[in-house]
Amino acid sequence: MESLIAMIGENQVILFFLLFTRLSGLFAFFPFFSHMTIPISLKTALVLFMTIFLFPLLSPTLHVALSVTSLALALVSELMIGFIAGLFLSIILAMLQMAGMQISFVMGFTMASVIDPQTSTSIPLISQFLSLIGLMVVLAFNGHHQMILFIADSLNLIPLGGFYPGQNIVSYLARAVTGMFVYGFVLSFPILAISLLLDLVFGMLMKTMPQFNLLVVGFPIKIIVSFVVLVAVLTSMMFVFKKEFQEALAHMTILFAH
């Protein structure tokens, strides 16, 4: 093994290992690529293939000192790239889940929850539905290809082992988390508004007709109307999601550039 390393070159081996670590972090945290239903063996094979494919694009110069401490910090920095970049995009998907939670609450579907295979947590059914539609939209406009292009561009933007989170990244994450709640409310507002209007109508009916049974008649009507409105605005919700996802991809290239 030592003779093989000496023949290939110590710097080349370290560069290959750092590139493999960066791709592992990106594929471990990026939406769609990090999905738990994809086998680990397939992810590892894909990371190895991408490492071999992208290795000729690397600069032969190693920017990391040949010491255990420096190499350990370089590995941590490479994993942080994948974590932070994946967090940027995961916040956009969480926007759909936030909207789905509010819609489920007003429809009375809070107890109708499923286990999310990605996070292994229980989330409302509407949130899971919107998240799956969002992933389909990402694949439809080739968002997975844009993520791979970001991985290739990161080799020129960030030298291997030379990443550190700056103030601009922290500020953008703070704004993104705030926008997650704002856009989650905006996307769910049509259903929330219709639900509030129906509550006012049902309240007036119960005052004028005391025999009106809200549990038997009111809740089914509320669920049906909410589903109709959700189907009507689903396309607009996905257009907003697509715009925010593409903006997040564009901001990643800007924020990670030194």
Describe this structure in words.
Strand 1 and strand 2 form a beta hairpin. The chain contains 8 helices and 2 strands, in the order H-H-H-H-E-E-H-H-H-H. Helix 2 (10-29) packs across helix 3 and helix 5 packs parallel to helix 8 (214-255). It is elongated. Helices cover 76% and strands 3% of the residues. The protein has a two-stranded antiparallel ribbon. The protein has one domain (2-255). It has helices spanning 2-8, 10-29, 40-54, 68-107, 125-140, 143-157, 167-208, 214-255; strands at residues 113-116, 121-124. With 258 residues, it is mostly helical.
Overall pLDDT metric: 77
Which structural category do the helix and sheet elements fall into? mainly alpha
Q: Per DSSP, what share of the residues sits in E-state strands of 2 or more residues?
A: under 5%
Name the helicity range.
Answer: over 70%
What count of structural domains? Answer: 1
Main beta sheet: strand number and arrangement? 2 strands, antiparallel
Shape: elongated
Strand order of the largest sheet: 1-2
Rounded to the nearest angstrom, the distance between the terminal CA atoms is 37 Å
Regions with little confidence, pLDDT below 50 for 5+ residues = none
- SSE run: HHHHEEHHHH
